[in-house]
Amino acid sequence: MRILLLEDEKKINDMLTLYIRQEGHTVKSFLHAEDALKAFAMEGYDLVISDLMLDGMQGETFISRIRNQSDAYIIVLTAKVGSEPKLSLLRKGVDDYITKPFAIDEVLLKLRNIERRIEREHTDRFTHKGDIYAIKEKTNRITRNAVSVNLNPTEIKIIRFLMKHPGQTLSRDQIIGHCLSESEAFDRIVDTYIKNIRRKLADKDLIETVYGEGYRFKGVRHA
User: Fold this and answer.
1) Which has more pLDDT, 55 or 21?
2) Residue from 83, 86, 179 nearest 215 by CA
3) 48 partner at 20 to 30 Å CA-CA among 64, 95, 163, 169?
């Protein structure tokens, strides 16, 4: 899994990063919430692990901002005890929580449980020139030949939109209307996203440019 870790106590951050990497996961760790939010907006993650007591931003605010962008799994580290604080976290869209102090085995067990849930998720699949692509519905992660590819959430949205209209030429305005926010709504930003998708997937022919009209998806979608 690709995991984003936000923990402002450096010793705990370093320990979690070490053990999670030893489990074979990719981890990007942060001490500050704003840095973590910027990274999350640029890249896709399967899971976010966040401390609740943060410097500079309330943990609840951080969680809400993540949840507004994505359905990625969220585990919260919290020193708060009692049913009401935990129920409040679940209402905000948190998938699980770990009470401090914790044993590292508890953390790793919860990661394995989430990994199994991800494996059972609905997956959109398509092929192109012998390569097999898969997009997980909940976590919005894409793999190429079972290897994770680091596309950001907007790039994933664009691929999904094109994939649902195979063989059709979709205009820049259509792509903007379905995939981009109002702040990004200008023609040439679509060209930039398409260029980045081609580069990251190492497949320049998956999305065809139809000059003067838009873009066409050339992969074969599988049920």
Assistant:
1) 21
2) 179
3) 163
